[in-house]
Batch of 4 targets.
Target 1
Amino acid sequence: MSRRKLVSTLLALLLAIAWIGNRRGSSSDDTGASSTPQAVVANTSLTAPLQILQAQRQYEGVHSCSATACHGSGRADTTGSIQRNEYVTWFEKDPHAKAFEVLRNEVSQRMMRNLGIDIPATEYADCLKCHSPLSQAPRRGRRFYGQHGVSCEDCHGAAGDWIAPHYRDGWEDLDATQTGMLETKSLDSRARMCARCHVGAVDGEVNHDLIAAGHPVMKFEFSAYHDALPKHWNPGPAEKRPDFHARLWEAGQRAAAAGALKMLELRVSKADSQVDGAVWPELAEYDCFSCHRDLPRLAQNNTSAATTIRWGSWYSGLLERGSTQQDSALSRLRTVMEGSVVAEPKAVLREVRLALAQLEASEISFDYVRRATQSDSLDWDSAVQLYLAIRAHDQDNRKTRPADAPATETQIRIDRVRSLLQFPETFVSPRGFRRPGTEQPAPRAAVSTALRDLVNELESAGGAPDPSPEQESAPCP
């Protein structure tokens, strides 16, 4: 894949419309015994707040990893756990390397004008928190350079305490947890790591002001993002498992939903405590299409009068509809959020904390997908999440077929759902999905029927099996 095509793909994934582009059982935490020290995120609980920076540790910068003998080789080593050309892959192919550069483009410049801010985006802290996180680090080494976008230490942890010992004899005997190295082998940890920027964290978020100024809405789905990235590691046993994509999907659902709920908890806590500058209601929490129903691409101030404002369902709709509990915590939270234009902060706090506790105690599986497809009132966001769930599970089926095999009937049907969900060419909203007009059958009804048929087809073909208890045992990538 060309660099230009890859960059375009990842940037498009940041938009809701691009999501249309593209089990059961145990947790997807694949931690197991290893001869390499097991690094872990300090708190992997779903109820723990997400944080982008390790403020007490020193960051060394990407140049500390780029030597030819370390991770800057011009050729991949496929024999071990690391390829040794990780820096080259990141620099040449990974859109994260361009995260700072996009702050110079016309979209970013227009956003700053819309916000009424006179400094460039490359100097604005609210942009840098995710587009160049390490530039905000209080402790930086002498080789640090802050214009490298999202780089090695954003995912692997501040290297100040492990950059020297991690390649020396005896490293295997150390507790890497204590050095600041972050866990990347566990799919749950990996998903939480991505969610820090792509959903939101205590030290970085995208609010309605940024969205109204032109920033893409934060619609993150872990398995699709993971698929789109160039891999700078050799796949271990977990990635060779027959249910790997299903486990990616499960981990992503947990991490993204928890991240969104923690973001809501943070926002409403500030409002409840009357923190200076707190905004409530924060409109980024709600479904854009409650107000922007038919949104032409060239008239982005188009707003319809809404009889009700719907709480956003991108991160909660599938789990809410797929729950076995009719009065689930997510359903009660939705009732509170939609009961008034200004939802009562204390009531929201109570329900969001119950929803987080219920999510942590839940075991997400394909059963959620099957139950959610039975809903007769799918909104667009929930329908897209169901499409992506089905697509992820079908990815595991594709691994059993030759790469050059013709598309199966299931793949053709999945592509058909994708086309039904696509935005009209001149719109940036799902025009007609809720108000079908003269289209027959109504798009929402057609999508619901197609999703149910696909779930039945996957289950009858054995496409959603129970994951085995086998665990990953290779070194982390």
Target 2
Amino acid sequence: MTHSEESNQRYEPLTFDVDDTGSLAVSGPDNPTQCPPDYSRMFAISSAGVSSAAPWVNVTP
């Protein structure tokens, strides 16, 4: 079994915008139980299904 470091991980599709500098602004779901406030790793997945490096992000309400 691979990629089993975090048994509570989940896939949560998010909406986002990219500005002229390439910065990404991400919006989470309205229901905080879908993506509760905490530190989490965030992956971006390309249209080809390739994932990015996953920085730690602080999810806030």
Target 3
Amino acid sequence: MKTFPLFLIFVCYSLNAQNLELDKQGGALYQSDDDSFVFRVGVEQVNISFSAFDNKGAILDLTTDQVRVVEIVTRNGRKQEIERIPDYFNKSQDLPLRLGLLIDSSGSSGVPNSYSDALRGFKDPSRSVLKRGGLIASQTIATIWELLKNDNGNNNKIFLGEIGYEGDGEPNFFTLRTDWTSNISKVVNTISKQKSGGSSPLFAAVLGAAIQQFGQNSDINSEDCASLLIVISDGQNTLSTNGLAPISYAQAINLPIYTIAVIPDYYDVITRRQFISNLKSLSDQTGGQFNELPGPNKIADIAHRIARNFRDRYYIGYPLDPDYNDLPSNNDFIELRVEIGSADFNGEWRKRKDVTVFHKSGYFVNPRVIVE
């Protein structure tokens, strides 16, 4: 059963046709008495994905007694640590892959133009489905899919979405180009037809993709799938929407976001720093990973880095503490800490100091995000 922490988003920009479609699909967006817009997700389960590394690389043989989950909650100005016992423990290699690819097609980024050959290489290298695109680009981008795939065959799926597309009528913050499919050639062919232009509603697009493709009414269950979202963008955000909305939602549904920054050289240092900050916030706080792409020759390195970080993940979960629903709205962020170690002869927990664990920073119980 799919369950999520209670999640509220207050959104003050006007809804267009794109947002109304999300209302139908998410089934949770409604207008409140003060004309704000509220998004709700159900209560019950906290889901966490994490990966652990020591000086030898990824740790692949962890068991439940080697993992400790600690929640840090602030009450009456004092922090309290509470250990949680997972009620399930899965490995990503055993789960079907659900990979979302979100590409910035805005005029500022022009990703489809600048890196079209590289992106066309995002295919299954075992089949010669493309005649276009350089051999190196095909091999490197294909690494992401190839390394993340497992033995689940057609149960592994990918979708392609677009940021900043503006067609007839109202602009769309998130445009679904190819829905969930195991046909990589279909995704690649769609990428090759994309055109750059339009605005850069980065955060709204990420939120829209998360809700529509991974959200409550989708068939993606964080307990049953290894899910991630890869965002390729220059990091520009042209709407007033801030990053807290997509970050909070991704934390609630346990969706790590991996970002690849493709930033043109003509931006000044301050602007570039802001764009990087936008992308890093999406990745760092959801348990994903930030990557900067200085040129197509570095795609292979980034592909391997993403694959290594994600493919060796573990998935755990436990019921939400019902007492958290009484926390005040300005103090309801629950910090998370996942530790690797073991109990000593006296039953005392001993954390391994040589291990680095990657996971989301925490989650909101009742987050309220006001966008003006």
Target 4
Amino acid sequence: MSSSDRPNLLLICTDHWPGLLTRMAGHPVVMTPTLSQLANNGVWYSNAYTACPSCIPARRSLMTGVTARTHGDRVFNQHLEMPSLPTMAQCFRNGGYQTYAVGKLHVYPQRNRIGFDDVILNEEGRHHLGMLGDDYEQYIADAGYAGQEFLGGQCSNDYNVCPWQLPDHCHSTNWTAQQMCRVIHRRDPGRPAMWYMSFQMPHPPLWPLQAYLDMYANVSIDPPIIGDWAGNPEKLPYMFRAYFMDGRHSIQNAPTHEIELARRAFYATLTHIDHQIRLVIGTLREEGILDQTIIAFTSDHGDMLGDHGWWAKTVMYEMSANVPLVIMPAKNDQREWLRTGRIDDRLVELRDIMPTLLDMAGLDIPSHVEGMSLAQENEREYLYGEHWENEHASRMIRSAEYKLIYYPVGNHFQLFDMKTDRRETKNLADHPKYMDIRAKLTKQLVKNMYGNDGRWINNGQLIGEPDRPTPNSSSRHFGGQRGIRFV
């Protein structure tokens, strides 16, 4: 395939978006018309996962095509530089593409372009990592609102709600889409392009535009799902008991109406992003290149939103680990595995996106890549998931029918039937009928564990470590609360 014949690529990534919160997954409330149209013109991957559900390790897998074991982070290491592997952007660039990113990268150092020709950056104001001001903050300052994003008292790691108080064009979701439209408009028409549009949202703070909050004003909001196993706090894994005690989220134990408002605001944020994606698609159409452009949409991980009492991420339940994935091929790509309107139920994960998109563009897949191309007849028997190495560690094996979750502290197992209980309400781990399934998945789990995980294994059997008493401590971090910044 010559360079002039290669398709363009628009890869869209969000932050904290659960795959279950889409029309394609059958959610009864969330409005995602744009994603639904993309899926109707492409493929919806119903079993897509992030193998390490937090921002940094997930994005390392997305951009390198490898597991956490290879890229080196399963603990959210904020100061770890990218591994010395060709990134997705670098591979497209080496293949003759112009490559540009807008939005969140979440790499270190923060201005590392990881192979892109240029990055227009929104780092969510993480000044503690050394960069005092990103491109989005500069935009806000130029508009006359320097340091005022958090005037409503919201927080990047909590779920208190206040509608956006600055002009709409200053909202990070609008800014990201507008900047991407400009980048597309300014492209070199003689070369194919790879564009990466990475939204900061729906990651808190929950500051939706009032118009989108109003869209859900008369809609009945579904409550969090609480599993049968989550009803007795004293029998929960240590990780849960420690989480409930430290009070890191003010939404924990909030009254029903406050939890409902947080979920309503979160849903409003999803629809806002969905609509802004339409503007970028419209730009591609009006530039006359929509038919020649691959569009892929995903998220680094999900958000529990109160399911089983948990908020945010890092756990292996569906709302945290299952992510949306839609790929719409260029119009002339008629491969069977990319057939229009197809629902693909293979077990896939973020490391598969890089080889898939390179394959669709007719570019070589580097030998270091551990993911599989979804444009081909590839399949895996199971997925392995992991997060943390300390007392909060958990591990997962997801097969086509079941999910095994393991907490080493207390040697605690959970087993869920993914065909009949997708929201993981009934723990089957100790049910006599499922002992053979548990044993089979445990064997796969042990086979994938590495490094200091070995302390939890003896003669091929998981022994974990002694349970711990519920800690009596609380967090004074206030979720990393921001104040007013004057520069």
